[in-house]
């Protein structure tokens, strides 16, 4: 593990401790405690807006931003949080944690990228270090799958949360091979044209981020969970119909008040590009089956996809109830 990865892990541990203290000191009654394994960015604006809409419907959503998806998942497993954001498939299988995914937020839309001063293609990454978002994340699964497809293995994997952080590390020369989102891709192409190469991935369809919760919480708080699910789906559909609406939502709810003019300018291009891939029905059983196929091939899940059961990973009750009211797209 390199120095950067050790620092990030230490920081994540510190945040986890602070999170536990903060939760223990909460005085309000029955908040919906959401652990978000990432930092708040332009890419999460629509989700932050959906949280605000759930609050307007009476759900006391309290969001804590953590350093990685695995820390968020552990917070849910340990009872420090009620709902997590991520794709905790490996945890579900290996630890047999009593948690279930209940809706898909986004599909994988990432771009493996290398500094062309050092690497040109997948074969060049054999025996080299790469950086991904976090342990068990979709970014790690993609890079592992690509290693298998191209017959290579990495010397080590560094965990660097935040696509914009990895993008900056590439520009600064601190990282030579990683994976970024569409915003990062545009930044790299704009600031350093020709310096970076985006490696081919082929057809990949799987969950990037989802919402998951303890099974007891899902059954005991079904009404609140459905309010949250409906707030997200209606927001997703609004954004898909008009990506410009995200800017209006940002202003209405005063989201990301410290966003730079450059970040604000990226809102419309980002959502215009991502809108066609937004899951307007929460993923459901079809997404779950795609995930089992992808995560078994990539190595995050063990066994054969056909032998795995959707109900061991997903609870579709809340999603199906909401879709029965608002319809499917």
TrEMBL record:
Signal peptide interval: 1-29
Keyword Signal: yes
Gene Ontology cellular-component annotations: periplasmic space
Signal in keyword set: yes
Compartment(s) of residence: Periplasm
Main subcellular localisation: periplasm
Pfam families: NMT1
Keywords per UniProt: Signal
Domain (SsuA/THI5-like) ranges: 56-244
UniProt xrefs under InterPro entries: SsuA/THI5
Protein family membership: Belongs to the bacterial solute-binding protein SsuA/TauA family.
Entries under PANTHER family matching the protein: ALIPHATIC SULFONATES-BINDING PROTEIN-RELATED, TAURINE-BINDING PERIPLASMIC PROTEIN
Full protein name: Nitrate ABC transporter substrate-binding protein
């Amino acid at each position: 593990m390199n120095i950067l990865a050790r620092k990030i892990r230490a920081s994540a541990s510190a945040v986890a401790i602070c999170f536990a203290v903060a939760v223990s000191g909460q005085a309000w009654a029955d908040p919906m405690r959401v652990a978000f394994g990432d930092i708040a960015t332009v890419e999460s604006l629509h989700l932050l807006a959906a949280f605000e809409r759930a609050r307007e419907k009476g759900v006391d959503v309290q969001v804590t931003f953590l350093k990685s998806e695995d820390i968020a998942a552990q917070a849910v497993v340990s009872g420090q949080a009620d709902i997590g954001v991520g794709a905790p498939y490996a945890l579900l299988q290996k630890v047999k944690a009593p948690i279930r995914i209940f809706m898909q937020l986004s599909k994988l839309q990432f771009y493996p990228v290398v500094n062309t001063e050092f690497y040109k293609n997948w074969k060049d990454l054999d025996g080299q270090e790469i950086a991904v978002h976090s342990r068990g994340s979709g970014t790690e699964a993609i890079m592992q799958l690509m290693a298998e497809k191209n017959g290579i293995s990495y010397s080590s994997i560094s965990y660097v949360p935040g696509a914009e952080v990895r993008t900056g590390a590439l520009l600064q020369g601190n990282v030579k091979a990683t994976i970024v989102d569409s915003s990062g891709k545009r930044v790299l192409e704009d600031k350093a044209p020709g310096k970076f190469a985006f490696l081919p991935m082929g057809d990949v369809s799987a969950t990037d981020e989802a919402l998951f919760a303890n099974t007891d919480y899902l059954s005991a708080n079904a009404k609140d969970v459905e309010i949250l699910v409906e707030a997200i789906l209606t927001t997703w559909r609004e954004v898909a119909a008009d990506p410009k609406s995200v800017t209006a939502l940002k202003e209405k709810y005063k989201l990301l008040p410290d966003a730079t003019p450059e970040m604000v300018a990226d809102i419309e291009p980002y959502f215009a590009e991502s809108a066609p891939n937004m899951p307007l029905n929460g993923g459901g059983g079809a997404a779950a089956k795609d995930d089992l196929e992808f995560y078994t091939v990539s190595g995050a899940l063990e066994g054969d996809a056909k032998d795995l059961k959707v109900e061991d990973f997903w609870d579709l009750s809340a999603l199906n109830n909401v879709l029965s009211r608002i319809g499917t797209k």
